[in-house]
Amino acid sequence: MINNSWNFEPQQTQTKVQEKIEKKSSIIRPRLTCKVNVNQNNIVLYQNGRSFIYQASNQLSKSLQRFFFLMDGTRTVKELQQIFWIKNPQVVEKIISDLEEQELIDDATQLEVSSGSDILKELEYLTQDLLINSVDNNLFEQSITSTESNLPVNVLYGFALEQYQVVARKSAFYSPALDYSCTDQTRKLIDRVYCQETTREKLLSEALNTIGISVRELTDTIPLSETVAMCQALAYWANSEPLFFFYAIGIIKQKATQNWQAYLEACERTKVETQFLTSIRKLTYLNRENQHQSLTHYLFQEVPHLEEKTKQRFRGQIYLFVEMYHHFHSAIWNYYSSTSDLLRPVSLI
To answer: Which InterPro entries match (predicted)?
Structure first.
């Protein structure tokens, strides 16, 4: 790891600071391209295995922390100078010049950006088109919405089983995402959504218990490979792209609101076990209280801007997500419609 140390003392005279600026930076809206950490009075900038340390006095350390936090591409150099060291604007120029020299900042004015809300609208339009052309037309979706289909009861039980397998793994993808930086209001909403997932897990466990499947058997059961793939993708996004993770979960919950109502009606037509149906009714009611769509909008509204490359990356990930979600439902029909065995115990492998 490369470690560079800068001794930062803005109390220097304007002349001395100016002498250190070899050339004035051309950056208009500086944006940090590195991570920032604070160690006592030292502010450490990390990027690709390199670390750069600003050594500041205790009095200046907090000002520098806030300065780096506000260097997000939404403010011009002049605006930053008005906020910090207005009597000594060369200090801001010196910091920006140093950061530019080490390639720790770029200029947001040279990037094509959109607001989080605008990006969300684009993503929603794309997602709906993809869902209509894939998930909405697979055999499982068609079978639970058709009043004329001869629906195998094992498909209905299998759907509940695979849904349980997803929600039982919620800690694998929710835990890293819970550290996502947001406002207190949104944080409370995230906590409520997570609590709802715990309730869903309990209701699904109760429903499956009514048809003779114990919690121990659920723990010992192997989910379908398509279920595992979707859980792994969600865990990856939660760690690497938490904003996209929340968007993907929002789509799942939005579809769940529609699917569980159709699923409930299919269960009533197929005459499944009465106690199983009671738990499914509770679960359907809970899904009507879905707050995840509001959470998605709150999160994107809090993002002042997203670059074009981020938008394109999100669009590419939506294609992958919808395809995996489609395979998740198709696999439920393909497997459970052709077998009399609901469980695939690990202990028998």
So the answer is: Haem_Oase-like_multi-hlx
The CA-based dihedral angle spanning residues 94, 82, 110, 125, taken in that order and rounded to the nearest 10 degrees: 140
pTM, entire model? 0.68
Structural class in CATH, domain 113-348 = mainly alpha
Please calculate the CA angle 268-272-276 and round it to the nearest 5 degrees.
100
Q: Which of 33, 37, 21 is nearest to 102 (CA)?
A: 33
CA pseudo-torsion sign 336, 340, 342, 345? negative
Lowest mean pLDDT among 22-31, 50-59, 335-344: 22-31
Task: Dig out the tokens for 72 from the structure.
Answer: 């997000």
Quick one: angle between helices 242-270 and 153-167, nearest 10?
150
2-110 has which fold?
Answer: Outer Surface Protein A; domain 3 (3.90.930)
Q: Are 55 and 5 in contact (CB under 8 A)?
A: yes
